[in-house]
Each structure stands twice: as C-alpha cells, then as structure tokens.
Amino acid sequence: MTLFSKMPQIPRKDELLDKAFQRARKVKKTIDKHDRINSIREYEQNKISTVSTVISVTLDNILEKTPKISNLDPFHKHLVELVIDAGQFKKSLAALKWASRFNTDIGHKYRRRLKGTPLKSLAPVRKEYYGRVSSILKQIKKDLLFLEDCRNILKKLPTLKNLPTVVLAGYPNVGKSSLLKSLTGAEPAVQPYPFTTKKILLGYIDEKIQVIDTPGLLDRPIEEKNKIEMHAMLALQYRANLIIYLIDPTETCGYTIEQQKSLYENIKASFEETPILLCATKSDLSPSKTSRGKSKTKDTPYSLSTKTDEGIDTLKKRLLRSIDWKTYSFKPISFKSPPKRK
Fold this sequence. Notes:
alpha/beta; Four Helix Bundle (Hemerythrin (Met), subunit A); Rossmann fold; 6-stranded mixed β-sheet; 10 helices
C-alpha cells in the first residue's frame, strides 16, 4: 500500500453532477391528499438535499483521504514536490473545500426558500438551485482534472517503512536493480540499457532491512540533475543508513572507471556521516571482457555477481549482523576473515 493509495478517484465535473442528479431522481414522491402542497414542497426539498449531500460528501471524502503535503516527512514531502506541482495541488484542494461549503450553504438557502414558495414555483426554484450547483462545479472543473492527474502519479510513489535502510547508488546500468532482486527477491524491471529504473524501487531483507534501488546517478552538479536523478538524491539524503555504491569494473555499463570513481568520491564527500560500502559488480565476466580489470579506487571493493550469486549470501548476512537496532545505523562491515586462534 502506498502513501496516497487511499486517495479516492476524482470525478469529472459532469460525472459528479450526473451522480447527484441521478440520486435525486430516485427520491420517493409521496403525496398526502390532505396536504398536497406541503407534500410536494417536501419532495422538492428532499431532492435539493440529496444533490447537496452527494456533492459535499464526495468532495469532503476526497479532502479527508488525501494526505496533506505539509504533514509528510521530509523525504516523502520532497518526493511529492518533485513529481507534481505541490503549490497548485494545495490550491486545488482548497477549491474543493470552498465548493463543498458553498454548495452546502446554498442548499440550506434554497430549502428555506421553498417554504414560502407557491406550488407552481416549487420545481423552478429547485431547478434554479441545480443551475447554481452546476455553476459551482464548473468553477472547480480544472481543479478536479488536475487532482485526478496528480492522484495517478502519487499513488505510484513508494511508502518507506521505519526500518534500517540501505540505498543502492551508482551510475546507470551498473547492476543496482539486479542486486536488489538478488538481495530481496523484489522483481524490478532489469534491462541492458541505462535508466531502466525510472523511480525508486523497494525490497526487504527478511523484513528487517529496507533496500532502495535508486535511478542511476550521473557525475554532475545537483542543479543539472534531472528528476530521475533527484529521486536518488532524496533517498540518499533522507533515508540512507548505509549506502552501497556499485562500481562496474568491466565498464560494460557505458561509463569509465574514472567516471565511476569520481561519482563515488563525490557521494562520499556529500554524505560524510553515512557509511558507504563499495561493491564491484559483474565479477562473473572474465578479465578479457573488462577494459581496465580493477576499480582504481583507493578503497578495495567487495566483488559481487548477481548471475552466479557470488558474494550475495555473505553480503546479506553481514548486513543483518551489522545493524545497531537502537539507532538503525550500520556498524562497519568487513569481509576479511577473522584471524585464526592459536
């Protein structure tokens, strides 16, 4: 379930009007032979009441079940602001609130107005109310359309759990999605071309560690990064307890070792308080298929292969053992064998 999964579908203006008018047509008409005028007056009042209630209940339900952006945690707040116009989103919700209240107010006024209306004018007064309601919804027509477009985007955003979190980072096509699948069993789209990951993907190791697969980062200033890359930066900034930086020593990802090393050093400098584990992917490829052979970073990378599963189980076990459950931080992870006891 995602953060905005409970946000109801937003009807179009005509859909909402049709729903309200159809419900009003079903209002039972009971004529008292001894009090015919008041019976018809009550019938017209009930139709107004029905239309008013259907519209306001629908709009209020949208407002109630739509999370307020200002109440979101920093990660989700910034993520929402990346994918939609948050300012317009708030204005459109405010427009729905206005429409609901105005609709309720004029519903009360027209029902009271019917009390002193002669028989022949009862239906015309009710139709006049219908016209006023149509005018109200016409004023929020664009807001309804905009909010439905936003809903279709927001319902796809991930909802992160309160768990120790590992963020996978690196250039496009270095194997992040494949590693997510190997570590957690999640089924991300894995294709042999850059930027397969268009959004943040999630997986879980034994329901104890949350693993985030981020869109590929490129080594360039933050102001030049696109929205896909900004998703990754948000995950690193707000949710990473540990960063696993993947480097492809084969350079089959399309980026040189020097480029990958530069990005690694930039991430280390930008997130000094977050531990980083350097891992070399695609260890199944023979040296003849690599263009450099070694990573050329001052840190020694841990070798992995998602095709042969080399290093996967060990990495998973070390991650689980290194969690500090009081702080959700990760203790230093070493892949060196402990010294033998004499």
